[in-house]
Model the fold of this input.
Amino acid sequence: MAKHTIAWMPGDGVGVDVMDATRIVLDALNLDAEYVPADIGWEFWCKEGNPLPDRTLELLKSTDCALFGAITSKPRDEANQELDPSLQDKGLSYFSPIVKLRQVFNLHTNLRPCKAYPGNPLNYRDDIDLVVFRENTEGMYGGIEWFPLPEKIATAMADPQVGHPDRMKRWFEKGLDNVAVSTRVMSRQGCESICTQAFEYAKNFGRKTVTLVEKPNVLRETGGLMTREFRKVAKQYPGIQAWEANIDAICMWMIKNPQDYDVLVAENMFGDIVSDLCAGLVGGLGFACAANIGDDYAVFEPTHGSAPKYIGQNVVNPMAMILTAKMMLDWLSETELANRLEAAVAKTIAEGKIATYDVKGRGKGDSTTVVAHEIAANL
Ligand code: IPM
Ligand code: MG
Done:
């Protein structure tokens, strides 16, 4: 039996190309693993009305972790149109399988390192080395939303004892049929856990600062809860500086002085936003790796999406996916292989001979597969 059992989920679009590329590199590393293919993505929504079939959830439970390429999501009306005719009018509605996986397996931590590898011409600066800790199951991703706003909910929100009668008045005046509500629900435990992980990481990897990304001046209750937990946790790590920034301000500071930041910690949506920003500073989504980590399971998935316009062309940068596999190796305690893999990617970037179009310019790039073979050769 192989040492590791890994669920293999290319998903949609260029997910297939970057996963094929990653396999070339993992095979060159001789990782002792069995890869078990699992169904996920748009195809299964269209054919079965479920982008994350139950059999996939069962299969994942029998594996150590999952490697995942990318997912296509479309707005409700488009999703319904592409559904097999036999499934239409059954009241099915599309949901994001990755968001669901994060919930079902309680993958509470989304870890997103953004490092400027020397020699990457797309680096904003060469001295950027950030890690984003994004809370991954709470906040605006909880799926507690309404449109139109049901009378019952609106009435509770306006209840003089527990609600906001004055603030709700204008929404009743507009008519509840015209009002949509999405909620940001956060727990003290969720806030404490993500902050603790960020500080632990800083301690273990010799990082000097941890910055909270929030907006407590406006989101007083959720932002306030997160800020209090952050300060409480920070007290236990006197050697690490605790900085606080608002989400809007940090978008500006990241452009001015990204090299000043070390570890960022944020709730779900702000972490989503700031991690794309950080990715943009170190070469873009072609380099942005990520890991969804829970207590005993993890799904490794790059930050990028399925890039529908590049489907079947084998041109996108596989480095984000390959660096994501590096994170998986770290998580599996295959530290030596992880280090070799990262060094091979760094070498390929530094040499600059072989690279995809995002680096070399449109029409001038090497293929996804060629880049993978170059990394494999550099192992
Ligand atoms: C990400 C993506 C996802 C998210 C989408 C695809 C649901 O943007 O992983 O950052 O918003 O979390
Ligand atoms: Mg995102």
Notes: The chain is about 45% helix and 15% strand. The chain has a mean pLDDT of 96.
